[in-house]
Design goal:
Layout: E1 17-19, E2 21-22, E3 24-25, H1 28-37, E4 45-46, E5 57-58, E6 64-67, E7 73-77, H2 80-98, E8 108-114, E9 117-123, E10 136-140, E11 147-151, E12 154-155, H3 175-191, H4 200-219, E13 226-231, E14 241-246
Parallel strand pairs: 1-4
Antiparallel strand pairs: 1-2, 3-8, 5-6, 6-7, 7-9, 8-9, 10-11, 10-13, 11-12, 13-14
Helix pairs in contact: 1-2
């Protein structure tokens, strides 16, 4: 989520294709710098997105997520407020992402509108086609809302304790849903005390990077960001762990 106001420069780049659609882009004079920095072609999503696919996921805030076909990118819908904020801080954000210092912030590669809906495109830090190939995945926050998303290779069903959702709404009630709630709650407790063992040198580097990213977010009055942490046992087919923060 984001907080902020302001009007930025609208820049259209009608040669950019997303899936099979020609889209209107915003502030692409800035986001194209990120694509060049990470050697991503302007038409990286041409034929690479199916908006009618079943990979749509709806986030807690109601946003819609769509993965690119190659799983390298994640597309997310924006609220008008988030759109306005992004328009206002694009230049500063791009400078932060592309300078010589490391960052764990998601790399926003494209900001566009398709059929009246606003979207942002970012790299996917967890590109495995099956997220359950990771042993553990955590969504870590500075508040009391950290959670475990994958537990020993199995996706954790987010069964929140709300009066208007199962299993608390009669007659939608099952023992399975009660068990899902129990596992979800245990995962939230575990996420608050998860430990990751790294070398002293790497610890110093990662803390310095996180502090620098948080300083950028605070400077722009942004909130509701978290650190996504994925863990794999050594000897697995891909990297042992990966992490990123997103806002």
């Amino acid at each position: 989520g984001a907080a902020g106001r302001g009007r930025g420069v609208v820049h259209s780049h009608e040669k950019i294709m997303v899936g099979d659609s020609l889209v209107t882009t915003y502030n692409d004079q800035h986001f194209s710098r990120i694509r060049r920095h990470f050697k991503v072609n302007d038409n990286f999503l041409e034929g690479n997105v199916d908006f009618g696919s079943r990979t749509h996921l709806f986030g807690k805030g109601g946003s819609m997520h769509v993965y690119s076909k190659d799983r390298q990118y994640l597309l997310k819908t924006l609220t008008p407020s988030d759109h306005a904020t992004l328009m206002n801080l694009s230049a500063s954000y791009v400078t932060h992402i592309t300078n010589k210092h490391p960052t764990l912030l998601a790399r926003f590669l494209l900001h566009f509108k398709r059929k009246g809906v606003l979207w942002i495109v970012m790299n996917n830090w967890l590109p495995l086609a099956d997220i359950e190939k990771y042993d553990f995945v955590y969504d870590l926050k500075g508040c009391d809302d950290s959670k475990r998303l994958v537990d020993r290779g199995k996706t954790v069903v987010m069964r929140r304790n709300r009066w208007y959702t199962p299993p608390y709404v009669w007659p939608i009630f099952s023992l399975e849903q009660i068990q899902q709630r129990r596992i979800y709650k245990q995962g939230k407790i575990q996420a608050k005390k998860v430990e990751v063992h790294v070398t002293p040198c790497f610890k110093k580097k990662i803390l310095k990077t996180i502090k620098r990213d948080i300083s950028f977010l605070e400077r722009h009055s942004l909130m509701d960001y978290s650190l996504v942490l994925a863990i794999q046992a050594s000897g697995s087919s891909s990297s042992s762990s990966s992490s990123s923060s997103s806002s």
